[in-house]
Amino acid sequence: MTKNIAVIKGDGIGPEIITEAMKVLDAVAKKYGHTFNYTQLLMGGCSIDANGEPLTKETIDACKASDAVLMGSIGGDTTTSPWYKLPPNLRPEAGLLGIRKALGLFANLRPCVLYPQLSGACPLKKEISDRGFDMLIMRELTGGLYFGEKKTETVDGMQVAVDTLVYSESEIRRIAIKAFDVAMKRRKKVTSVDKANVLESSRLWRKVITEVAKDYPEVTLEHMLVDNSAMQLVRDPAQFDVMVTENMFGDILSDEASMITGSIGMLASASMNETKFGLYEPSGGSAPDIAGQNKANPIATILSAAMMLRYSFDMIDEADAVEAAVSKALNDGYRTGDIMSEGMTKVSCSEMGDIIAKAV
Ligand code: NAD
Question: Of these residues, 3, 9, 23, 195, which one is catalytic?
Fold first, then answer.
């Protein structure tokens, strides 16, 4: 198969971690007889330096013309970098919001996996971390409270602020379909998180999710209130497979879920539209404190590339092979600095990429 991949290396550790992910993709291409064509594009701080803006029409058009986008990270040190003296709409992060909007990426997928080899980094009690967990949080990204009408006004001499939480049936239906489709490729369980005991938007959410579930008889659906979900995530995270929720609940719960894995350098993510098209990137930022030192952990980016193989290209065996190669590297005791522990072998970013590419 031939696939065209738009590559945005970005800023900070972005170029280092993307180089390693491409190394692993090249190993996949060689083993399985595929051709991956890469188009390198600028976005974020490097685009500001080259073009005076964080996201150009050229980058958007090239992304739209590709089969998927693989991204490193964008942004710099927010206190010292000159990029942060610019108006907010010209700063690196404006590129990130702009590209999500331009590509219609409404579903954010964040797998949270506790690898048994790294269970020591999990802040939960040992009897919980020993069970491990492997869940995926699917967050609606373009609706809800963050995008509804907002205003601050003075009423009877008192300032009053209003944010509006709006969801339409079609917005809920498309994320529900995405969640059930992904669950079909996993352990076939969906937990839909809402606040249906209080919020009207949640009652519509629950109704539409339940309707969509009828088209997926193999998938088990459960509804859970958001406050209970926050507790269950730290009490028994192993119970979850796919958790689907609206924008603000997802923002909070996905960070909570990331935290219990204990290592930011391991967390992949994807943002998708209605088709198989997606943008794949690590959950972490550009880590300016370690940029250019060959110290970054490339695994989150490599696992993001595996998600691209699985969800955008339907290359299931290939994705499994990359994930197995990551596990093997960990089993063999290789660690970058951020996940290093006693008795393990410390390796650089590029060495970790070599080890995983070889294991593929
Ligand atoms: P960060 O995630 O970049 O760094 C937080 C800490 O985690 C740092 O100590 C860093 O060294 C470490 N870390 C992150 N990724 C790592 C990796 N792969 N390997 C080893 N260690 C890693 O968060 P921050 O410092 O708050 O933000 C730095 C910049 O990144 C800012 O400009 C911010 O806006 C930007 N940012 C970009 C994205 C994105 O591109 N999607 C996301 C978050 C933050």
Answer: 195
The CATH code for residues 1-106+267-360 is: 3.40.718.10
**Fold identical between 1-106+267-360 and 123-260?**
yes
Measured from the CB, is residue 11 less than 6 Å from ligand 1?
no
Ligand 1 lined by 204 (C-beta under 6 Å): no
Every domain of the chain and the residues it spans: 1-106+267-360, 123-260
Q: What is the pLDDT of residues 104-155, one digit of tens each?
A: 999 999 999 998 888 888 899 999 998 889 999 999 999 999 889 999 999 9
* SS (HEC) of 95-147: HHHHHHHHCCCCEEEEEEEECHHHHHHCCCCHHHHCCCEEEEEEEECCCHHHC
The residues that bridge with 189 in the sheet, in sequence order, are 220
Interval 147-190: pLDDT, tens:
899 999 999 999 999 999 999 999 999 999 999 999 998 999 99
Query: Does 146 qualify as catalytic in the annotation?
Result: yes
Q: pLDDT, tens digit, for every residue of 292-333?
A: 999 999 999 999 999 999 999 999 999 999 999 999 999 999
- Residue pLDDT, tens place only, 243-258: 999 999 999 999 899 8
Phi, psi at 292, each rounded to 5°: 75, 10
Q: Is the CB of 78 under 6 A from ligand 1?
A: yes
Q: Is 307 left (phi over 0), alpha (psi -120 to 50) or beta?
A: alpha
CATH number given to 123-260: 3.40.718.10
Distance in angstroms (rounded) separating the CA atoms of residues 169 and 191: 19
